[in-house]
């Protein structure tokens, strides 16, 4: 087993669509996913890294006063 040397936080627009790339293609292990009913955060590990993939929240645009 390798030691985790770094944790990287990555944004995603759709977590469910991105997970197969990390688990199947990169062969990373899914350590945690939450909340269970509508996942927004997944934590994966492998290759000396820990990835925290978070569903990006939409930012509100600031409106200029006219």
What's the arrangement of strands in the largest beta sheet?
1-4-3-2
> In sequence order, what are the helices and strands, one letter per element?
EHEEE
The CA-CA distance between the termini, in Å, is 60 Å
CATH topology type: 2,3-Dihydroxybiphenyl 1,2-Dioxygenase, domain 1
Strand content: 35-45%
Question: Rg from C-alpha positions?
Answer: 15 Å
- Structural class of the helix and strand makeup? alpha+beta
Give your account of this protein's structure:
This protein is α+β, with helices and mostly antiparallel strands and 66 residues long. The chain has a single domain, classed as 2,3-Dihydroxybiphenyl 1,2-Dioxygenase, domain 1 (Roll), CATH 3.10.180. The protein has 1 helix and 4 strands, in the order βαβββ. It has a 4-stranded mixed beta sheet with strand order 1-4-3-2, covered by helices on one side. A hairpin with a 6-residue loop joins β2 and β3. The radius of gyration is 15 Å and the shape is elongated. The mean pLDDT is 87.
């Amino acid at each position: 087993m390798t030691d985790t040397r770094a944790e990287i936080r990555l944004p995603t627009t759709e977590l469910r669509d991105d997970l197969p790339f990390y688990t199947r293609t990169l062969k990373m292990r899914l350590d945690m996913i939450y909340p269970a009913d509508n996942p927004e955060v997944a934590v994966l590990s492998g290759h000396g890294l820990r990835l925290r993939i978070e569903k990006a929240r939409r930012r509100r645009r600031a409106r200029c006063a006219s």
